[in-house]
Amino acid sequence: MGKINFTVAVIGAGAMGGAIASGLVTSGAADASHVMACNPSPQKLVPLDEKGVATFAEASQMLEQDPDVVVVAVKPQVLPAVVGEVAEQLAGRTVISIAAGVSLQTLEGLLPKSRVVRAMPNLPVQVLSGATAVCPGTTASEEDVSRAVELFSALGVAKVMREDQLDAEGAVVGCGPAYVALFADALVRAGVERGLPAADCREMVLATMRGVCAQLLESREHPRAYMEKVTSPGGTTAAGLRAMEPELVQSAYAATDAALARTRELANA
Question: Which domains does the chain possess?
Answer without folding.
Answer: 8-169 (3.40.50.720), 176-268 (1.10.3730.10)
